[in-house]
Design goal:
- By secondary structure, this protein is of the alpha/beta class.
- It has 3 domains: 12-45 and 56-76, no CATH class; 111-354, Type I PLP-dependent aspartate aminotransferase-like (Major domain) (Aspartate Aminotransferase, domain 2, 3-Layer(aba) Sandwich), CATH 3.40.640; 361-488, Aspartate Aminotransferase, domain 1 (Alpha-Beta Complex).
- The protein contains 19 helices and 12 strands.
- Helix 4 (97-103) packs across helix 13.
- The longest helix has 19 residues, at 444-462.
- The N and C termini lie close together (7 Å).
- The structure holds pyridoxal-5'-phosphate (PLP).
- The site of pyridoxal-5'-phosphate has 13 residues, from helix 7.
Length: 496
């Protein structure tokens, strides 16, 4: 591809206006950033026919050029280590350095998933310990660490529920009830699992409406998927009754555990009647997961669902840790390895740093911080649902709409003021949603600085000084992107 056509394609899609962003298109034909050893040296003769015959179509750049390219990109980014990142539902908390020290220990960093069990006893011990922790924290004692993300956990959890229903002879139960406030992955996972979803309309307080639930519960119901606290930051206070109703109708309750940060160490989904829960360890238990990964979504289940958990299972036999590869009723393996070890070990380190007696501080401080932000911003911003929030607070742009300003303008202006925007336009149950999740790792000074910025935006709006809001962002290297174009026609590779 010629330089100019590559540049045009890139800028059309991502709005890039700065030539230096296109370093890869400035590649010289021949420069090499790395010298690979000759194929003869380490590859057995039998494998040499696999060697590529033509040079790879990759940019010809020297090592310093390559390093500068990536370091520059990293400097243009906003991460949890450069600033406040209150992205609701994502729990973007600070990732303690000690986690990184743990995962870089050579005995953990340099092992291979196919190594003999007796040579990875330490890693298996830590993973087993994490299983125990997650079982205790969730109140659902049987845990698989395999799922590679929250969404994968949803699919695995529903596969477990499916297997249980089938084993009971309830093969016809295919209906999954999903509140309209749910994360989009919930209905997607149900569909992937061969079930069909029915949307439950939320009540006027943003919570599950018991009457709507009763209307839809019947002999075809396989499960209810519920998120508690829900994506409006509200605790589903009827959770016991909701679970009882679903169980009485012969269904099971799936818990989306993405919001566990509001409960950890304080209350347990298993005690509330949830049968099966995924835990986004990359949210609740640190790990930087911006940009789509890495993550892990362990699934915890009660005694009824335990036989159906995936294999291999990490078990302790006397003093020895083992991978148990077969189990009659199991749904089978769901990942090529026992789990995403780096993310899981960081979660173990985060939990261990608090310890059993102090885990509750995570939830308490997260909830306190969210309520502090809510308290400072209400009045200036519309609060759709009354009362305290849990670990995140929900606002809307209704007040600002009177001046022609929308949630998107507010979010973009925050970038100019040095903050990562909150989650916007989610949950879908309110118009112009802004979902703010500060997490427990932020100081009062940071929360105040963020609230001051939000209040400054609201004041600008009231004063009719709205041009800066529509123009934002002006400070970062990118202005507003053509997001529709980027979603519909993404160019994800350097050259085709
Ligand atoms: C993040 C999230 C998910 C999906 O989890 P991933 O780990 O991103 O796949 C599901 N539900 C809710 C409420 C979430 O916030």
């Amino acid at each position: 591809m010629s330089q100019s056509s590559a540049s045009q394609k890139y800028s059309a899609v991502s709005g890039i206006q700065h030539e230096e962003a296109l370093l890869f298109e400035h590649a010289h034909e021949a420069a090499e950033s790395i010298n690979l050893p000759g194929v003869n040296r380490d590859v057995p003769a039998s494998l040499q026919s696999f060697a590529r015959q033509t040079p790879a179509n990759i940019p010809g750049l020297s090592e310093p050029e390559t390093v500068r390219h990536f370091v520059r990109l990293s400097q243009w980014n906003h991460g949890i280590e450069t600033g406040f990142y209150p992205l609701g539902s994502c729990t973007m908390k600070y990732n303690p350095r000690v986690n990184e020290q743990v995962v870089r220990l050579p005995g953990l960093a340099h092992i291979h998933p196919d190594q003999p069990e007796d040579s990875v006893q330490g890693a298996l011990a830590l993973l087993h310990e994490l299983q125990q922790w997650l079982g205790e924290i969730s109140g659902l004692p049987h845990v698989t660490l395999q799922p590679a993300a929250g969404a994968h956990g949803e699919l695995v959890g529903l596969m477990i529920i499916r297997a249980c229903l089938d084993a009971r002879g309830d093969t016809h139960r295919k209906k999954v009830l999903v509140p309209d406030s749910a994360h989009g992955t919930n209905p997607a996972s149900a569909a992937l699992c061969g079930m069909h979803t029915v949307e439950l309309k939320s009540g006027p307080d943003g919570r599950i409406d018991l009457e709507a639930l009763k209307q839809h519960l019947d002999g075809d119901t396989a499960a209810l998927m519920m998120t508690n606290p829900n994506t409006a930051g509200a605790f589903e206070s009827d959770v016991r009754e909701i679970c009882d109703l679903v169980h009485a109708a012969g269904g099971l309750v799936y818990g989306d555990g993405a919001n566990l940060n509001a409960l950890v160490g304080v209350a347990r989904p298993g005690d509330m009647g949830i049968d099966c829960l995924h835990i986004n360890v990359h949210k609740t238990f640190s790990t930087p997961h911006g940009g789509g990964g890495p993550g892990a979504g362990p699934v915890a289940v009660n005694d009824t669902l335990a036989p159906f958990l995936p294999v291999p299972r990490i078990i302790k036999n006397g003093d020895i840790y083992q991978l148990q590869h077969s189990h009659d009723a199991s749904i089978g393996p769901v990942l090529g390895t026992p789990g995403q070890i780096g993310v899981l070990l960081r979660a173990n380190a985060y939990i261990a740093a608090f310890g059993r007696n102090h885990l509750h501080k995570i939830a308490e401080d997260a909830v306190l911080n969210a309520n502090y932000v809510l308290h400072r911003l209400k009045g200036a911003y519309d609060v759709p649902f009354e009362g305290h929030c849990k670990h995140e607070c929900l606002l809307t742009d209704t007040i600002q709409n009177r001046h022609g300003v929308k949630t998107l303008d507010i979010a973009k202006r925050l970038i100019d003021l040095g903050f990562h925007p909150m989650t916007v336009y989610f949950p879908l149950i309110v118009h112009g949603a802004m979902l703010i999740e500060p997490t427990e790792t932020e100081s009062r000074e940071t929360l105040d600085a963020f609230c001051d910025a939000m209040l400054e935006i609201a004041a600008q709006c009231e004063a009719g000084d709205t041009q800066a809001l529509h123009d934002a962002p002006v400070r970062p290297i990118r202005r507003r992107l053509d997001e529709t174009q980027a979603a519909r026609n993404p160019v994800l590779v350097w050259a085709d």
